[in-house]
Amino acid sequence: MKKRVVITGIGVVSPNGVGIPKFTESIKNGISGIRFFPELRELNFSCQLGGMPTITEEKKREYLSELQLRNFNSSGILYGIIAGMDAFKDANMEPAKTTEEPLWDLGIIFGSGTSGVEKFRESIYKIDDKNTRRLGSNSVAQTMTSGVSAYLGGLIGAGNMVTANSSACATGTEALLMGYEHIANGKATYMLCGSTSDSGPYIWGGFDAMKVTTYKYNDAPENVPGPMSAEASGFVPSSGAGAYLLESLESAQKRGATIYAEILGGAINNGGQRGGGSMTAPNSLAVQNCIKDAIINSNISAAEIDYINGHLTATIKDPDEIENWSVALNRKGGEFPYINSLKGMVGHCLAASGSIEIVSALLQLQEGFIFPNVNCENLHPKITELIPSEKISMKLQKTSLQTIAKASFGFGDVNACVIFKKI
Amino acid sequence: MTSEEIYVQIQPIIKAYLPEDVSAEDINPDSDLTRELNINSAHLVDIILDIEDAFNIEFKNDDMEKLRNVNDAILLIQQKISA
Known about the structure:
The complex is a heterodimer.
Chain A: E1 5-14, E2 17-18, H1 20-29, E3 34-36, H2 38-42, E4 49-51, H3 57-63, H4 66-69, H5 75-90, E5 106-112, H6 117-128, H7 139-143, H8 147-156, E6 162-163, H9 171-184, E7 190-197, H10 201-210, E8 240-248, H11 249-255, E9 261-270, H12 284-297, E10 307-309, H13 318-329, E11 338-340, H14 343-346, H15 353-367, E12 369-370, H16 381-384, E13 397-398, E14 403-410, E15 414-421
Parallel strand pairs in A: 5-6, 5-7, 10-11, 10-14
Antiparallel strand pairs in A: 1-2, 1-8, 1-9, 3-4, 7-8, 9-15, 12-13, 14-15
Helix pairs in contact in A: 5-8, 9-15, 12-13
Chain B: H1 3-15, H2 44-55, H3 61-66, H4 70-82
Helix pairs in contact in B: 1-2, 1-4
C-alpha cells in the first residue's frame, strides 16, 4: 500500500517576487518580472530581456554565513538555498542540531540545468591562466549539479537521500514526482524538492543563438506577447528557484501541519525524439500519453480537472500544447478546464520553470484563484479553434479549485505531469 | 618581520574561517587549525591563499603539508619573506 503524500511547505525565488507573500501578490495582479538588461545589449544578444530575482546582500545573510559567502558566485545555488530553506521553514520544520544526529527520514532532490555557471567561468579563466591553485576550496561545491541539495543538506542536517535531478525544463516537476515516489514507497517521511536556474548571459546565450527567444520587444519589456497570444514570438529567458516540502499525509496530520495539496500522482515519460519529437521539439503522442498516464496513476477521471498550469512558453508550440491537453483529457470547447501560463509574467525560468510554476499552482489551489494570463489579448487563432477564450482568463478570477494538473516539457523530449488535489 | 607582527596580520585571516561556535579568542600560536579550532580542512587552502595575498608570497605544495598550527604559518611566512 502506497503512502499518501502531501505538500506542507513552499518557497519561491521568482523574477516577480522573492518569498511567498510578494510572489502571491504579483501573480494575482499580473505583475511582470521581465526587464531590459543593458548587459545583454552590450553583449549583442538578440533578446535583451530577461527575468532575474532581486536578492539583497542582507537577504543573502539571512541564509548563509559570511564564511559561506566568501567568493560565493553561483546565482542558481543562492536561489535554490533561499527557496529550499523557505519551504522548509514554511512547513514548520526545524534543522537537526549540530550536536545531534541528522534527520534520517528527510531527503532532498533539488535539480538544475547547469549549476554555478558564473563560478565555472571564474574558474576556467584561472585554469587557463595556469593558476589552478588559486581556485580555492569552493569551486567544486559551487559548480556541482548537486550544489543546492548539498548546501541545503548541510543547513538542515538531512540524513536521507540527498541528490539532484536534471531534465531540462521539466526538472522541477520531475523532482517533485521523484520525491513523491520516495515517500509513497515508504523510504522517507519528508522530501524537500525543487529546482533552480542560474541567471545571466552564460545560461541564456545558447537559447539566444537558437533564436527561440523573442527579439522584437527589447524596448518594450512590458509588451512582450505572452504565451498563447497570436503575436507570441519566442520566450524571455529568466531564472530563479521554487521548492516544496513533501511529507507523508500521516506525518503531516500528526504534526498538525498546514497542507497545501495532496499529490495524487503523476507520470514522467519521453518522446524518444521520434514521431515529430526531437532534441528541442516534443513528440505530441508522448505528451498526450504522459498526461493520460498521470490521470490513470492518480485514480481520477479527466473530467475532474478544474485547472491546468501549462508549460506554454510563448513559442509556436503553444497551440500544439493546447491540442495535446485537449486530446489527452478528451475535453474540448466549453468542456476544457481553465488554463494559464506563468511565463507571461516571469519569462521562461528554464530548469526552474517547473518548480516556480508548481508553487504558483499550489497557491491558486489553496487560496482559490486563477492568476491572469498577461499580454495575450489577441489569442492565437489555432487555440481559439480548440477552446473558448473564457478558459484563458486575462483577469484574476476567484474560484474554488479542487483538482489541478501541471505539466512541464523540455529539451531531450522529456515530459512530466503531476495532479494535485485540495485536501 | 617579527613573529608578533605576523601574528597580528594572520589572526584576522584565520578568524574568517572559524566555525560559528569557536571564538577568535581561542586562537593562539599553538592551536591546531583543524583539530582544535575545528576549521574545515578544505579551508586550509583558502587560508594559504589569503596569507599569500597578504604577504605577497607563494607557498609550494610541500609547504602546505607543514602547516598545522599558527606557529607553523608564522615560521613559513618568515622563511618566504627572507628568501
